[in-house]
Design brief:
Layout lengths: L14 E5 L3 E5 L4 E5 L11 H5 L2 E4 L2 E4 L4 E4 H5 L12
Antiparallel strand pairs: 1-2, 2-3, 4-5, 5-6
Length: about 90
């Protein structure tokens, strides 16, 4: 009999579901979040493989190790509260 949940720490329940010309969609355990390139410019020119490599080290905290990007659900849902963005030189 197969169990849908393994014992111990679960593997990441987060994944990128779509990458478009407008931004990136991130699916968490209970919601889908959209990150526009306007608010999250670091993803715009990043290789797809690096965007897809996302981890959830803590619930609601997402990390892209290949891009060294840390975001939380609050930052993604309310980017206007966090106006600092990377500037392309």
């Amino acid at each position: 009999m197969m169990s849908s949940k393994a014992l111990g720490e679960s593997i990441s329940a987060v994944e990128i579901t779509h990458i478009s010309g407008n931004g990136v969609w991130l699916l968490t355990e209970d919601k889908e979040l959209f990150m526009s390139y306007e608010d999250f410019p670091w993803f715009k020119d990043a290789p797809v493989g690096k965007i897809l490599n996302v981890e959830e080290p803590q619930e609601g905290h997402f990390y892209w190790p290949d891009l060294d990007i840390d975001l939380t659900i609050e930052i993604i849902e309310h980017p206007e509260r966090f106006p600092l963005k990377a500037k392309n030189a």
